[in-house]
Fold this protein.
Amino acid sequence: MKIKNIEINGFAALAPMAGVADRAMREICVKYGAGFTVGELTSSKGVSLGDKKSFGLLACSDNERPTASQLFGCEPETMADAAQKALAFKPDFIDINMGCPAPKVAGNGGGSALMRDPVLAEKIVKAVVNAVDIPVTVKMRTGWDSDNLTAVELAKRCENAGASMLTVHGRTRVQMYAPGIDFSTIKAVKNAVKIPVVANGDITDGKSAENMLKITGCDYLMVGRAAQGNPFVFSEINAFLNGEGYTPPTLEKRFNVLLEQVNLMLKYKDPHNAILESRKHTAWYMTGLKGAANLRRMCGEISSVSDIEKIIDLALEQNRDL
Ligand SMILES: Cc1cc2nc3c(=O)[nH]c(=O)nc-3n(C[C@H](O)[C@H](O)[C@H](O)COP(=O)(O)O)c2cc1C
């Protein structure tokens, strides 16, 4: 797939996940086969006003390219200004969030609220496209609720405004993250536009990736939660869709990658925050193991890298046969 002039390899990208898919996770996922990454959603107002925390979210590394800065907001001029300021961090493209259901985003007219106002959404895309000389993409849901599946209209307007790619998470705003993906609306979006369409929602392995591609006819895939504690999901999907064999990593390898990810978090973040955030990532890496409940409880008390190493030792000890 190509996002305008940017060549994208493989079959699946890492989804943006605020508070989860940080620089460390994004680098690790690219290392294991993610084709592109998208930064955590960032307030256009914050960036426009020069807020330090917002700038912190825009930082990205060469090891996670191609990568996008993702902005949210509902004012075309502010979005355009923020997109220009984001260029200082050298993203490969700018992604506009039209899917976030959180009240502090949608309640202020941004994120998924734009699914209810396709005219304003089009103005925003136009303003951002005119403001920057890199591709502009949009991530949306299927609509606000099942009576208002606006994704097709929104997609056409985004394309008309100059967007270079669309990602559709196959749920409405009201559905939040509940089970059940609306494949047919994703397919309808794919059929309505000429620009590439990326399908997202509940892809967890090679089979579900293949299923999504077959049903929707989309150009590419995006994986979020299944990559938590499992960056190898991208290698698995790539191998499956290339018709190649896939050997899951050994437990030792899995834990080495966990430590690599935590070390990157320590490199990029305030050490206190890095250790606090390592608790949930370490717990995710324990998924499916014998003694996982106890291991996860221990993860909640991590206060140093050596605590993580102790948990790893115990996990290896209890899971020798895996
Ligand atoms: C913790 C969390 C944070 C998220 N943050 C963002 C975000 O910042 N921007 C965005 O567009 N989507 C965000 N999403 C939505 C995901 O990108 C994705 O669309 C959704 O999780 C469905 O994909 P999945 O089933 O593969 O997880 C977030 C999802 C989760 C679970």
Q: What stands out?
A: The pocket of flavin mononucleotide is lined by residues 15-20, 40-41, 70, 97, 99-100, 139, 169, 200-203, 223-226 (CB under 6 Å). DSSP finds 14 helices and eleven strands in the chain.
